[in-house]
C-alpha cells in the first residue's frame, strides 16, 4: 500500500519541461535501436512516456529531414523541423557554402554575411542583424581551424617578472601615466582566414600553404590608456610603389629584409619617437619635466639595450 502511494506521488510530481534538440532526438532513437529500455531513455533525457512515443512516431520525418538537409546527423542546437522565414535564401546560401568548401576556400563569418547580403538583395528579402547566428544554428555550422599550433609560455618567469615589476612601480611611485608597454604583431595582409565555416559532420578541411606576405606593426600605449604612441609599421620595401603620390603617412614606416622588427629599427624608434612622445605626454598632464617613464617590451631581442 505504501509503495503504491509512493508511485502515485512520484507521478504527480510536475516534470520540468525539456525540449530536445534534433541531435538529442537522433541519439535517443539510436539508443532505442541498440536495445536501451524505454524507461531508461525517458529518465536519461528527462521526458515523459507520451513525449517518447510521439518522438518514436516522428522518427521517419526526422531521418528524412536530416537526409534532405545534407548536413548529416549533427544538427547543432536546432530543436524544430520548421524552416526559417527565408527558406529560399537558406537553400542557395548553404549550396554556395558547400561549393566553396569543396573548392578549398576558407570561409569566415564575415564572408558568409557579405554573400547573404548579396543573395538578400537578389531575392528581394530583408536582411536583419543577428541573421548569421540563427543561420549557423539552423544548419549546424561550426568554425573549424584549418591549421594552428599551441603557444607555450614560461609561467614561472612571468610570475617572477610580475613581482619584480610591481616592486619597481611601488618603489619609484610611478603612476599609470608613466608606465608604457610596446608589443609587435604581424599583419599577413594576403592571408586567407585560418578558420572556415563547414557543416558539422564534415571532416576538418585541408589547408593550403599560407601566404607569408606581411608587415610588422608595433603598438605602444601607457597603462592609463590616455596616450597611444604613433604606430610603427615595418615592411620589406622602403620605397614601395603603394606610396607613390603620398605626401604624409599616418604611421612611422620603416623597412627590413623580411619585414621583421630588427634591433636597429627598435633603437631608432625608441630614441627618436617613443622618448619624445612619452615625455611630451607626461609634461602635458603636469608631471615633472624629468619624471621617470618605464617601457616594457614584449618578445624583443635579448641583445637590445635601451636607455635615455
Automatic annotation (TrEMBL):
Does the keyword DNA-binding belong to this entry? yes
GO cellular component term of the entry, any: nucleus
Record has Ribosomal protein as a keyword: no
Q: Which residues belong to any copy of the HTH CENPB-type domain?
A: 77-145
Q: Which UniProt keywords apply?
A: DNA-binding
**Coarse class of the protein's main subcellular location:** nucleus
Q: Name one GO molecular function term.
A: DNA binding
**Designated name of the protein:** HTH CENPB-type domain-containing protein
Q: Give compartment(s).
A: Nucleus
> Which InterPro entries does the record match to this protein?
CenT-Element_Derived, DDE_SF_endonuclease_dom, Homeodomain-like_sf, HTH_CenpB_DNA-bd_dom
Q: Which domain of life is it from?
A: Eukaryota
Question: Which PANTHER family would you find in this protein's record?
Answer: JERKY PROTEIN HOMOLOG-LIKE, TRANSPOSON
This protein's species is Trichuris suis
Amino acid at each position: 500500500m505504501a509503495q503504491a502511494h509512493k508511485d502515485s506521488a512520484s507521478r504527480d510530481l510536475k516534470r520540468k519541461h525539456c525540449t530536445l534538440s534534433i541531435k538529442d532526438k537522433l541519439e535517443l532513437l539510436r539508443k532505442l535501436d541498440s536495445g536501451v529500455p524505454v524507461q531508461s531513455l525517458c529518465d536519461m533525457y528527462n521526458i515523459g512516456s507520451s513525449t517518447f512515443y510521439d518522438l518514436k512516431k516522428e522518427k521517419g520525418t526526422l531521418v528524412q529531414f536530416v537526409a534532405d538537409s545534407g548536413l548529416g546527423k549533427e544538427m547543432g542546437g536546432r530543436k524544430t523541423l520548421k524552416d526559417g522565414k527565408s527558406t529560399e535564401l537558406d537553400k542557395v546560401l548553404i549550396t554556395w557554402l558547400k561549393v566553396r568548401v569543396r573548392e578549398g576556400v576558407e570561409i569566415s563569418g564575415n564572408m558568409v554575411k557579405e554573400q547573404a547580403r548579396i543573395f538578400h538583395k537578389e531575392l528581394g528579402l530583408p536582411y536583419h542583424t543577428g541573421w548569421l547566428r540563427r543561420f549557423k544554428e539552423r544548419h549546424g555550422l561550426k568554425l573549424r581551424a584549418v591549421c594552428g599550433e599551441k603557444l607555450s609560455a614560461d609561467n614561472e618567469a612571468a610570475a617572477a617578472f610580475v613581482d619584480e615589476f610591481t616592486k619597481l612601480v611601488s618603489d619609484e611611485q610611478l603612476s599609470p601615466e608613466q608606465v608604457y608597454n610596446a608589443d609587435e604583431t604581424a599583419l599577413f595582409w594576403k592571408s586567407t582566414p585560418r578558420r572556415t565555416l563547414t557543416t558539422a559532420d564534415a571532416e576538418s578541411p585541408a589547408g593550403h600553404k599560407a601566404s607569408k606576405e606581411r608587415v610588422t606593426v608595433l603598438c605602444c600605449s601607457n597603462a592609463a590608456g590616455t596616450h597611444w604612441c604613433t604606430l610603427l609599421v615595418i615592411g620589406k620595401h622602403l620605397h614601395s610603389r603603394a606610396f607613390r603620390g603620398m605626401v604624409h603617412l599616418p604611421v612611422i614606416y620603416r623597412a627590413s629584409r623580411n619585414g621583421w622588427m630588427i634591433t636597429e629599427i627598435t633603437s631608432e624608434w625608441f630614441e627618436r619617437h617613443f622618448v619624445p612622445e612619452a615625455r611630451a605626454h607626461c609634461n602635458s598632464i603636469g608631471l615633472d619635466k624629468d619624471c621617470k617613464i618605464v617601457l616594457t617590451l614584449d618578445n624583443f631581442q635579448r641583445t637590445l639595450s635601451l636607455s635615455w
